[in-house]
Design goal:
Blueprint lengths: L5 E3 L2 E3 L3 E3 L8 H9 L4 E3 L17 E6 L4 E7 L8 H14 L4 E6 L5 H13 L4 E5 L13 H4 L2 H14 L4 E4 L8 H9 L4 E4 L3 E3 L21 E4 L4 H18 L4 E5 L5 H9 L4 E4 L1 H6 L3 H16 L18 H20 L13 H11 L1
Parallel strand pairs: 3-4, 3-14, 4-7, 7-8, 8-9, 9-10, 10-13, 13-14
Antiparallel strand pairs: 1-2, 5-6, 6-12, 11-12
Bound molecules: flavin mononucleotide.
Flavin mononucleotide binds next to strand 6 and helix 9.
Amino acid sequence: MADLSVVVDGLKLPNPLVIASGPPGTNANVIGKAFDEGWGAVVCKTVSLDASKVVNVQPRYGRLRTGTSQEIIGWENIELISDRDFNVWIDEFKQIKDRYPERVLVGSIMEEYRKDAWVEIVERCQAAGVDALECNFSCPHGLPERRMGSAMGENPEILEEVCRWVMSAAKVPVWAKMTPNVTHIEEPSRAALRVGCHGISAINTIRSVIGVDLETLRPEPSVEGYTTPGGYSSKAILPIALRMAMEVAQLIKSEFSGRTLSGIGGVESGRDAAQFILLGCNTVQVCTYVMKVGYRCAREMCDELSAFMDKHGFNSIADFRGHSLQYFTSHHDLVERQAAARQKAKAAAKSEVVRADHEWTGEEFVKQSDALARG
Ligand SMILES: Cc1cc2nc3c(=O)[nH]c(=O)nc-3n(C[C@H](O)[C@H](O)[C@H](O)COP(=O)(O)O)c2cc1C
């Protein structure tokens, strides 16, 4: 059986499957449950120093269903970061690490555009025992008036400055979580890596409007008749997430060798996870699918990943991580490769061996005559 364990930025994980920041990491109880069910690591719901400024609404989710099975393929949320008190979180980080000293807990953090705030949140989280930090520069809705989340992540200069503050205080590995709501994800990723962040997490949710109710004519999710654009996740975003993970992986390969990548977006199976790893990811995070089916899917996903590895004879994650990156090229190069392949096939057909008459069987003379005519 294949070995699923990975070492990422010095942290040992039993497998590369990680709970992404969101409802499945929203307090100590549920984080403990995720560890019990076999998740390789957990990123908590994003915390901030002053939770009293975070006010969530209901309803805050909208879902896109498809076909006769009414399967949920897309999920929009207008949920903010955690509205739970920061001091409570600090106690819970300590409790989790007391109960699960060997397991990897990643503290997801977000703050206002102030050095003292970022330094304080980094220092207090790491003093409470988190094994790594993930800076949320990517929440697509809410809090732009405080220049938090994607308001920061969309601006590489601000992001670089904030990452510098974070790195000045951090003693644990730091991942910068990217927003997909930019044209070139390499730019904010490069800014974070340039000032020393250990890894990139990509992607957060995609800015979206999930739909308009054709009875009420109100966009959804409707809060007192109104809405605001939210963040799109779940199965439907897998291809976009794979593309962006690939772009960040290429950047790391060419400019920041040794840094790490955590792929996120639309993962629902071990086979989905394998694709992120083939594109260069060290770990793979899952949020919405866990909200749909619960933590238990970790075991099934590990079995699927393991079956994929056995089929190809891969003994470890390192055996295939980044393998498929080599097959990306420019469209121009695709045209040239195709022209060369066609030329080769034509030449091969032309040189088809004409066999001597006495070797012919049945009606082979039809094919042979044709070859002789083309000669
Ligand atoms: C309801 C909900 C809440 C989320 N809250 C956070 C959050 O607090 N911090 C964060 O960094 N990402 C948050 N996310 C984004 C996820 O961590 C993840 O990046 C995104 O949903 C794509 O992955 P998925 O398709 O597996 O859900 C949230 C996603 C959902 C659906």
